[in-house]
Every structure is written in C-alpha cells, then in structure tokens.
C-alpha cells in the first residue's frame, strides 16, 4: 500500500488560501514547531521579561526559550545584562532551573567556575598558569530595554528594525515611567494549543463579546471590530458617537503631549512585528477593572490624571496594556506543538503598597479571568484543527484582518530563512 508523503513546512504554508487560516498540520507537527522556534524565537527579537524581574544588583531571572536558557541579570552598575545560561567549562547550567534568584556572583554548580555580574570569569581552580580567563566570559545575548520591557535576540545578527520599536514606544511609555515599577502579581498559564493560535486569538476581538465579560466591561463595543452591513439607524448613531468620543479624547490627550495615533509595523517586509495605539476605556476611562476606575490610587510615574486610557502594544510573542495606575505585560514561550506558556505580570508604581494603594483582587481579576477564558478557547480551537474534518474558513475582513496579515508575515519570515 502506498503512503502519501507528508507535505513540507513550505508546502503547508503555500496551501493556505488567501484570507483563510493555516491547515491543521501547521499547528501540530514537530518539524514545523522546531522551525518556528528557530525562526521566530531564536532569530527574531522576543519579549523575555521586565526590568522589575531583576530590581536589585545581583538579581537573576532565568528564562527558557526552546532548548536555550538565558539569564537576565542586574549588574552592580544597575544595568540589565543577558547571558546564555551555559558555563564556559563543560556546559553545565549555571542556574539549574527557570525562575528568579538573588546572587552575589554567578557560580556554576558543577566545578564552581565563578563569574562576575558583568559576565567575566573571576575564578576557575586547577586550570594552570597558562589558562586565559579573559577568553571564557559568559556568552552575552543581544538585549534592548524599552520602557520596562526586556527584549532579547538569540541570533548573532539581530534584526536592526528593533530601532523602530524603540523609537515609537519610548515616548509613549515615557509618561508612565515604567522602570519605576514593581511586580504586584504574576501568573504562568500553560495553554493547550500551538503558539500561533495563542497569538491569533490575541490579535482579534471578534470573540470578545461572547467570552470575555470582565474584559469587555472596559472596552468600547466598536473596538471589537465594526461591520456596517445590515446595521440600523440606532447602531449607526452609536458608531458616530464612538468616533466622536475617540476624537475628543485624542484631542484632549494630545494637547497634553500624550501620543495616541495608531502605529503598525506588521507587513511582510519587517522582522520586528508590532502595533500600538492609545485606546479609550469605557466608563471612567481609567483602567481595565470591573469598575473601569483605577485599581491603584498610586499612579505610575508622576502622573496626575487617571483618565489616560490604555496604551496598547503587541508583537509576535507579547501583548501589553499600560494605564495610568498599572500595566499588564504578557508574553508567550513555546513548549511543544500543542503547549504554550503564557507569562503575565501586573506592574504598579514601585512605592505602591498592597492594601493601602491597591487591592490585589481588583487589580488582577479582569486579566486572570481573561487569560483562563483565552486558554480554554485556544485549547478548543487547537483540538478542532486536528479533526480530519477541519478545513480553514475565511477570516472576517472587519474583525480578523490582522490574522491574515500575521499569516503573510509568518510566510515571509520563513521564506527569508529558506523555509
């Protein structure tokens, strides 16, 4: 009996009908997953943490990216440095497991080779007088700190267009002084789905109204996507009111120097994929809480206004919401074809005190619920894409255009690597 050969990764991508999603095998195959990790998590810039992960000199945050492990370190001069978590002797992990620790120096647990926080090798016994320690410093990782976000690239030749993200986001984050924050709460959630499905789910709000009651409480309905077909006079009046409200808020914010305009760097020509906009929040226009009012009365930075909406930013492995009182920073790391780690951090002012300035439940309840709801959606979708009956359907041009854009960008980045 003849066996039909498996399509290559390239053939799977090429089989996508424009305007529709990818075939199911692209979410489940190990060879596709391995290519994805290499191209999208090793060769491109990814979000790997926030500055509050390492608040003091000697603090280390260890992050695993596929087979790679990196150490984010705050050195004695308060700089953020990132190294490969590999001893230069025989390859032992210096930090045995992912997570946070506070150390004086970085010491390999195998033979106690000892490294300064600047990566230089300080101590290695029994190596002889001709051993040159200067040649065995820790291997650095390309690192860019933008706001509180720590972006890393594991490639020897990182894409240069991270400069555009830095140029666009630095002035948008600046009023919130995000490096003057601390982590009030963080969560880790393993979603039972492919990383591309996690990011597709994040890039559309077609599903939001029916599945995210906590989140949509602070969203304007028209931000879910707007389809004018078949709408009555009342609905069109509501849309006109939405447009007018956005215009008033933008004029008000921009008069005080807050940048609002939509900026996208998403097409096939870019490596560093991101989008940002300052969005109006429903109700009080203050924060993504059930009341739409601030969760923390200690505002970020030196802000005096509470009603500053939501500075929204997403890239190919992360999403961020920055409000006047707190920020939610989330990023994903692929674990397996059907497993994705979602790591979320709630940032508040560095001097904010729990129980005095903010209530933890009020701060976290919206996105804790939303993340779990999204995890359920992703798991259900991943399962469905593996059904023999699955045929990718069309994206909505009104609410899911970014998904088709993501597919085209994904295709282009693979082609650039000869896949």
UniProtKB/TrEMBL annotation:
GO molecular function terms noted in the UniProt entry: 2 iron, 2 sulfur cluster binding; iron ion binding; oxidoreductase activity
Give the record's keywords alphabetically: 2Fe-2S, Iron, Iron-sulfur, Metal-binding, Oxidoreductase
Cofactors per UniProt? Fe cation
SUPFAM superfamilies with a match to the protein in the record: Bet v1-like, ISP domain
PROSITE patterns (UniProt xref): RIESKE (PS51296)
Q: Name one Pfam family in it.
A: Rieske
Domain called Rieske: residue spans: 47-152
Domain of life per record: Bacteria
What family is this protein classified in? Belongs to the bacterial ring-hydroxylating dioxygenase alpha subunit family.
Instruction: Please report the name of this protein according to its UniProt entry.
Output: (Fe-S)-binding protein
Q: Give the species this sequence originates from.
A: Caballeronia calidae
């Amino acid at each position: 009996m003849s066996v039909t050969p498996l399509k290559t990764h390239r053939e799977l991508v090429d089989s996508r009908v424009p305007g529709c999603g990818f075939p199911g095998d692209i979410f489940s195959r190990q060879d596709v997953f391995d290519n994805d990790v290499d191209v999208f998590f090793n060769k491109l810039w990814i979000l790997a943490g926030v500055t509050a992960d390492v608040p003091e000199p000697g603090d280390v945050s260890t992050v695993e990216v596929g087979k790679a492990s990196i150490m984010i370190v705050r050195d004695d001069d308060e700089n953020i440095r990132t190294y490969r978590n590999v001893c230069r002797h025989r390859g032992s992990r210096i930090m045995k497991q992912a997570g946070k620790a506070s150390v004086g120096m970085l010491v390999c647990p195998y033979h106690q080779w000892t490294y300064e926080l600047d990566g230089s090798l300080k101590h290695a016994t029994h190596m002889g007088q001709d051993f040159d320690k200067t040649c065995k410093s820790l291997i650095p990782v390309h690192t860019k700190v933008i706001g509180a976000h720590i972006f890393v690239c594991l490639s020897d030749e990182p894409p240069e267009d991270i400069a555009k993200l830095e140029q666009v986001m630095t002035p948008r984050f600046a009023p919130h002084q995000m490096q003057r924050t601390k982590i009030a709460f963080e969560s880790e959630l393993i979603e039972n789905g492919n990383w591309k499905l996690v990011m597709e789910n994040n890039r559309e709000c077609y599903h939001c109204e029916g599945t995210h009651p906590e989140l949509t409480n602070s969203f304007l309905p028209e931000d879910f996507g707007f389809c004018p077909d078949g709408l009555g006079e009342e609905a069109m009046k509501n849309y006109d009111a939405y447009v007018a409200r956005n215009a008033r808020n933008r004029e008000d914010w921009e008069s005080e120097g807050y940048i609002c305009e939509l900026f996208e760097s998403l097409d096939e020509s870019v490596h560093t994929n991101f989008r940002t906009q300052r969005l109006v929040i429903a109700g009080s226009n203050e924060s993504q809480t059930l009341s739409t009012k601030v969760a923390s009365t200690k505002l970020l930075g030196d802000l005096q206004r509470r009603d500053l909406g939501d500075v929204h930013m997403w890239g190919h492995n992360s999403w961020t919401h920055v409000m006047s009182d707190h920020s939610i920073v989330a990023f994903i790391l692929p674990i397996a074809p059907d497993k994705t780690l979602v790591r979320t951090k709630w940032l508040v002012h560095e001097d904010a005190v729990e129980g005095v300035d903010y209530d933890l439940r009020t701060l976290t309840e919206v996105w804790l619920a939303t993340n779990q709801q999204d995890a359920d959606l992703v798991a259900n979708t991943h399962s469905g894409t593996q059904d023999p009956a699955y045929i990718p359907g069309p994206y909505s041009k009104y609410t899911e255009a970014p998904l088709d854009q993501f597919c085209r960008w994904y295709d282009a980045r693979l082609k650039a690597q000869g896949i």
